[in-house]
Design a protein that fits this description.
Elements lengths: L2 H20 L14 H4 L39 E5 L13 E5 L6 E6 L1
Length: 115
């Protein structure tokens, strides 16, 4: 590689380093007295987060670590959701609903929550 080739490779390396480092720069602050762009966008109201036991989880606490086959069949199926930790589920919030999460590999119950 000749002198021109070395200069070209060096210039490319400097350009790449400059591009990488420019991504680390802090955003330019807004002028004093003017709200930031993020503050000017109104955030939607979030649904209230259910309390720890708004759905009666105390009665299911014994399930943690047990096989999913021991989960009792609910009287009202719409009030209980059973799913694996890696499964996709809807993000709707139903404070009275019991969520039971199990490990897809072992089949054991990992977590309980309301919502």
């Amino acid at each position: 590689m000749g002198e021109e080739g070395v200069k070209t490779v060096f210039a490319a390396g400097v350009l790449i380093a400059a591009l990488v480092l420019s991504g680390c720069a802090s955003p330019r602050p807004e002028p004093f007295g003017r709200p930031s762009a993020a503050a000017r966008i109104a955030a939607p109201a979030l649904p209230s987060i259910p309390t720890v036991d708004s759905c009666g989880l105390a009665e299911l606490a014994w399930l943690i670590g047990k096989p999913k086959t021991e989960i009792p069949v609910p009287v009202e199926p719409s009030r209980r959701r059973v799913y694996c930790a890696t499964c996709m589920v809807t993000e709707d919030l139903v404070p009275e609903r019991q969520n039971i999460v199990f490990d897809p590999d072992t089949g054991r119950v990992l977590a309980l929550s309301c919502g």
